[in-house]
């Protein structure tokens, strides 16, 4: 069987599956699961074409990794075939631990467990199934390989992950101005003392990258309508968990039932059944449950299910100012009155909290290799004062509630 | 509330919601349902980015309708504001009756009912809810309006529907060479004696359009891997129906249960409950059920569910030659032996039949307005001998079966 | 004759010539001249596809003006048909006074004359030829029309001119990340008290616009190789002028000869012959002369002609630090020695001075209309500290000289 | 000096100069000359963005050659580094012998000399200058290398040359529907018994390629307005030659003068001066001369120069029917009367003849490798009857004449 496949990708044209091992990993149910997990959760409720999946992102990132490594080799960096394939695998699998709706449900289905940890567990399991073929991949992924730039390509402020997702998210949302200039940035990468650095000629491109990323936070990732939709979904799952744990019958797939019934810790994933169930859980388990709950006896579960299905979303206030306690109380009481619910139950019908760009803007450096041979952080290398402002973590506060209730 | 919205669309840039009525129709649950129905069923199993929905297609077609009408007005054709909006609504709603997975399940969930009939019923229902605001829309849709070119824009060999879907499918599959030159074709449209015609200067573009459409049949719409995946889904639904109708418990959403339990006729849709249930049925009901059936006691239901989820598809033979009876029998027996099933049950584990490009290539004309004033069919107007060959209905025969069984 | 033409444009798809008057203006020799003037001078020596002309830019800007006006009308701003056409004409003609190689030769061929003044003179001449049909166009162009936003669309910090040229330059250079999100910005424009303002929702887009513009300065407009090529061309023209004015025979077209022989002032353009000659002068007069001068007896004229033709460009040092006098002297003497020239003649074989982004970044405001109804400058409206840094005028110093001479 | 350059190309993103030798060839004046020769002559008079040059095409073709060779290597075909570079050089240089305005002036400036012969002479000269480094390149170019598929990649019915120019011409004209699906076709190429063949899976793509090519003939390459402009240019050059050869003073660059004065044969190019002069001749010599001739004493030379400059083109009749002698005579007499010219002189003010798609559609095969192992020509392999019709040579007859003269 010919395993050298070519896959159409509207973003890059064609993506080549470069080896038999990679073909087999892509065919594994764990990886195929990513076909059913949308990259941007409910963002398609704002940008209808944002239907792209973790599967596409993982393949795209693998493709870019190949281009990055080709550039480095062209510049004379020595990279072995084994390192090449292991880096491609590491980026291919870096997100394999993501659960349904990507980031949205991380904290309700799996409180306290980061998807990176699950990625590691699943990669480790794959390594066993493939008789150790992923050993170097695992080393690179957890940053225990001596040549640090491989890990930095997989995970750093300017990693291949970001380059693909910013580019891809911008493509599918149709927010053209979020374009980060992937090809140009890739061509500016180089390695200096085993660290990934950017050539001085690329400073304007890095500035542009930081700016585009910032645009994408506010215009896409933290768009207020998406925040509202996602909060509703979180409330819905929380409600289902409370009902199940209180002994009610709540239809759900086998895999979803496990995560509704129990609050699991990372240690539980050492049990093969749990990891296996997680390996079957995707967006469709959630959407399927929502469609089953439309006529559920629990009025709140049914109502939220219907609202999400029909995109009747909460109204939302999102801004820099803190939400006043008095407003929260006012909303709560209006809901209790309108829906005739108890105080505890009302809490599923509104939401408040903070959102931030944290996931996108951690504090690590982007290193620039100056013509002088010096390595500077972009903040020093750039002529723009306060370029750091482009990366800083901004928190915004939100309050969202049903449209038929007035503040 | 501002109802003049602008929606990002990677294909056309921005799509404007042109009126309050259209905004309200788009917000209706019937239309929102299209967000959850993929345009190309399981085609994303071959072209991973083909995730686009009927929702996007309907909006895109409305957008193109506006451009077509603007062109006609620019050429001096008189079009009233009412006709303008009604045409946009007619194309917006032309596919509203599509069921889950678009064409795939039409014949198993709703045998003998064409989606156009359901579109009409749903538009009629919307017309009631909106106090007759869709009266002209309905007339145009069913071709009872006197100015025939409006209907031809909605439904004919060169309608706005096709222009959007070919363009959009080509964009999202990444099959760039399927490009039909939408803008150019739109600019070549004109009206002659109330019929939609194409200016003689557009002959090469129509040839190209017919060729691109043909490319898309074979490269996308009837791709053998998609045929295989869709046949598996059809078998799965048939299996579920047999089990339900035989008294087994088969978990499913409320809406899906109705269509698994009963074999409905078009007349049944006059019952509000049935139409309402259909208005809640989308891809997620099917996918959700599949995820619930993974561990079902019926081995065949569980097996097909798992194979579809993990993309372990039937091997397929697809070609012009008829499938030999002896091969079918050989496969059937091999399956009976391999899976230890009865003859009747084995039939869910393979499939044979014909596929054709019929849905895309019916026999109607594309009229060309020659410089001489004559109107000719493209077959006469083109210098290409046998251009008709590009439109003819081709049937291919297929046989598909599990990979662990040999022919 | 049908004057409602449609023109293919890779950037926007199709551009429609919207009226007979505009068709006739486009057909006029003054406007056709723009076909022979490249938008970016010698930039194609760095970005080979940057071959686009002022003709394309002018049509593209007219197209965008139509979209901007449609948006404003959609938002309820009253715009008459006459204002609509006059605005399109104003932007169509705003650059008609540009000379060969756009900005490059402005200061050597026409010292002290701004191309805007020549645009005005040529528009005035066209107005006479078209019997006053451009009266409102002229008013809008020179900002004497009472509704100020029309002029602001033609010329301001966020005018249609910039939107087209940034978009177009980014398209043809292939510097994809310079994308300014034209459609989005256009959709954010509105009018408040007859002033052009941007909706608050567009703040991130304006930030992105300012950033993209900055990227384009450094990556394209002030690219060091382009600066070098353009300085060589300026030296060449200066040399030709000196020779002509010293009585030497220097072959050139009729039009070019006029500008080589005399140093003209704006007043001279009142003479019909001068304006007429200018209306015949384009890039081809310069390139044609260069090709004639390849074998000229004046060694410096011949050498520079050959170097430019064969792209044997000066080496260049470009940076924030001032060029030291001593370096200039060193270069001058090395050239005198290498080429055996007099001190005065050596000055044609190197160049030093400053370049800046001034032409792109003047100090005017971009006004944001806040939800509160307040109008703020982007610098106040943005959360980014020091956003002004993106617009500030930066000067860089350069020194360029032949490669066979060492510093 | 770093010779591993990356060049922006809007069509492919980035093009890498893969070796020092190729860098040096690209820097040679012969190759730099291609910067000043437009790929499509005067086509920009119809499609304003069709400004792209032979320089861009040559680099693009080299880039695609790299992709094609990578594909073949990926499929297991053995290709040495030397063969790889030689193939890239062969395609890079295949058009180096093109003269000003590409095909347009071939028959007037150099009657009876094919540009391929000049390409060979120039490559041979480069081979001498580079001490034999192009020996294998020359072998591949003239098809004397034993592994025939290398030559077929450079020159055949489905060569890299065509793939780039169709793709590039379609991109810059903005005729989007001419897209040939380059990436897909490249991925379908393979080698069978040292012959270049296309995998059976690519049949629809080849059909599409032939169709797209046909669209491009009629919509672009043989567009009637381009034919008219090019005939005018041919007449102008003929007029200049007659004047020069009759002893008149006709200003022109050194290089152009040679070709105006003498009628050269291929043998003359053995003289270094002639080859050298040709190596300096580009579009700018022609355009420069036209601008010098605007005020020439010869009324016909001046008139044609002015008409071409200002795009006041001949009216044209173009069609399948032969042009009647009587019409030609009528036009000739009307011109003689209108312009008061002699019969012989009138012939410069109109033109008649035939154009055909010959240059694009010669009779060679495109070989398809069937799953059965058989190799079939596309005409047999395709299900489309008469696919040959897409490739056949069609001749059209034209008559063009000044607009102020009536037929």
From TrEMBL, chains A, B, C, D:
It comes from the Bacteria. Pfam families: HD (PF01966), HD_assoc_2 (PF19276). SUPFAM superfamilies: HD-domain/PDEase-like. InterPro entries: dGTPase-like, HD/PDEase_dom, HD_assoc_2, HD_domain. Residues 50-175 form the HD/PDEase domain. PANTHER family: DEOXYNUCLEOSIDE TRIPHOSPHATE TRIPHOSPHOHYDROLASE (PTHR11373), DEOXYNUCLEOSIDE TRIPHOSPHATE TRIPHOSPHOHYDROLASE SAMHD1 (PTHR11373:SF4). This is HD domain-containing protein. It comes from Chryseolinea lacunae.
